[in-house]
Design goal:
The chain is an alpha+beta fold and 64 residues long. The chain is built from two helices and two strands. It has a domain of 31 residues. Strands 1-2 form a two-stranded antiparallel ribbon. This is Putative ATP-grasp target RiPP.
């Protein structure tokens, strides 16, 4: 008998090449043509969500 979750296993997807680079002058990711990467829907969908804990580590008033 196989576990229920095994019914939903999918083959791993190949990594998506990132077409943007970080610009320290502008402090954001830019595409090859210089436009902000945040405006490119395909790049946003390919990169997936990210999480940051910076805010919780820099604000002392977040604790009880």
């Amino acid at each position: 008998m196989q576990p229920f979750a095994f019914s939903f296993i999918q083959a791993p997807k190949p990594p998506v090449p990132m077409t943007c680079t970080y610009s320290p002058e502008r402090q954001l990711n830019v595409m090859g043509d210089g436009s902000p990467a945040a405006r490119d829907v395909a790049t946003l969908l390919a990169s997936g969500p990210t999480q940051s804990s910076a805010g919780s580590k820099t604000h002392d008033d977040d604790t009880d």
